[in-house]
Fold this sequence. Notes:
The protein is α+β, with helices and mostly antiparallel strands and 191 residues long. It has helices at residues 11-18, 37-45, 58-67, 104-115, 138-144, and strands at residues 30-33, 75-76, 96-98, 121-127, 133-136, 176-181, 186-189. It has a four-stranded antiparallel sheet. A three-stranded mixed sheet has the order 3-4-7, with helices on one face. Helix 1 (11-18) packs parallel to helix 4 (104-115). The longest helix is centred in the middle third of the chain and has 12 residues, at 104-115.
Amino acid sequence: xxxxxxxxxxxxxxxxxxxxxxxxxxxxxxxxxxxxxxxxxxxxxxxxxxxxxxxxxxxxxxxxxxxxxxxxxxxxxxxxxxxxxxxxxxxxxxxxxxxxxxxxxxxxxxxxxxxxxxxxxxxxxxxxxxxxxxxxxxxxxxxxxxxxxxxxxxxxxxxxxxxxxxxxxxxxxxxxxxxxxxxxxxxxxxx
Length: 191
């Protein structure tokens, strides 16, 4: 499977796809939030929602005030029953090809592919682009914080700058790093 230059997609779909390639039970990748007051408010506010339901992270985010931990506890975003509902459908050999332009759900797919020993992972670069991190866009944050008058962030983005490294001095990139996967995705591994 060649996933080079894949910017990602839906995390559940990426983790659900793993089951069709292996007889092993899929354990979705656990993720952590960076401990910030904003992330705690988002998790509290949406802990019982039907989409992103980050209730599992609330206790560890609350404890971070006392412990000074940088990251929350690690829990999966993808439901384990869904990641195992179909079972193996492809029974041949499979190799995963990645590069540094694999992000988001593709990065999580690559980590799951490696963690479940589905097959060799061949990287044309030393690592995937996300390195285990994921970004949430300004639009998603706006939706999650709709009506929250105490939102402690501001975003200014220059239209010509698509990447933070190209942003002019003083501007802040819009995507906010909110969580990371617990596993990393080295790209030169024999599974």
